Amino acid sequence: MPPRPTVWAGPPHAALLRTQPLPAPPSAPPPSGGPARVAFLFLVRAGVPLDFLWDAFFRNGEEGKFSVYVHSAPGFQLDRTTTGSSYFYGRQLARSVKVAWGEPTMVEAERMLFAAALEDPANQRFVLLSDSCVPLYNFSYIYTYLMASTKSFVDSFVDKTEKRYNPSMSPVILKDKWRKGSQWVALTRRHAEVVSGDKLVLQVFRRHCKMVVTKALLGQKPNYRRLGFGLRRKQISKGSTRMEHDCIPDEHYVQTLFSINGHENELERRTLTYTSWNQSSDPKDKMTWHPMTFEYESASPEQINSIKGIDHVNYQMEHRTEWCQCNTTSVPCFLFARKFSYSAAMHLLEAGTVGPLKSALLA
């Protein structure tokens, strides 16, 4: 089973600490002269299925303090025929790639989002989100949380049990710089520039970090999550046999890039996006290690509050506990969660999680 960080709710006193106000966002305005913005970067297949929830989230926010960017399938347009939320009209990138899970195209799409958002100097924080991500708080709280920290939020750890590192990555990527973590990151502008500007590490990932196990190898439809952890195969290339390592680029690229460039001390080494991983007692099912999908019943206020109550993350591989703080103030670990179905997102909207029900889609 691939190791994943475990999350825990803190003792009763932690709830009291979380009621303390967050530190104020930095007063220095961005070069644009206006308020600093949070860029919400959506990595989607085509449309934005939970646009009604995000519509309410942005509608309860402050104009001028956020921007929206969407990477979707090439040729897809966000307009009145594909989304009911005006916040997404025309927000698709002018250039996009066809994304395949477990391929470098996932990382390329992420980099395109960062590059597009960096064109606006007002954007100072950059949050990567999937099409099944939801906010757990209203806009004001999330904005203050992100702006109050001078660090980026990047889940990053050393996994000594997995075999994804390929010696062929050396000397650009040495084994002791190899990192793993969630792809759902929240970056400062400086760190977004590092990701967008990289070419060297990306080229190595393109060559040596991708899924290589085929259906023919197993004689059945492969479960990609299972195959991503440590399986290898022999490839025939011009009559020669060589060993390739299965690798999932989006779980390693940003983390390894920051490790190589010496930025790890500038990170909160945790993700802001909660994921519930399967807890099946079936060993075969455990091997698949897939994220669970929240439905209407499992997105109850009680369940959401339990996620909000998590105040630290345990990284067993590193014998490290990451207490969730912002400038020494104890804070909830997670601002977002995934994977949420349409009905689960509707439950959040009904419960007022993102603020008063103001979605134009439901007016």
TrEMBL record:
<dbReference type="InterPro" id="IPR044174">
    <property type="entry name" value="BC10-like"/>
</dbReference>
<keyword id="KW-0328">Glycosyltransferase</keyword>
<dbReference type="Pfam" id="PF02485">
    <property type="entry name" value="Branch"/>
</dbReference>
<dbReference type="GO" id="GO:0016020">
    <property type="term" value="C:membrane"/>
</dbReference>
<keyword id="KW-0472">Membrane</keyword>
<keyword id="KW-0325">Glycoprotein</keyword>
<keyword id="KW-0808">Transferase</keyword>
<dbReference type="GO" id="GO:0016757">
    <property type="term" value="F:glycosyltransferase activity"/>
</dbReference>
<protein>
    <submittedName>
        <fullName>Uncharacterized protein</fullName>
    </submittedName>
</protein>
<dbReference type="InterPro" id="IPR003406">
    <property type="entry name" value="Glyco_trans_14"/>
</dbReference>
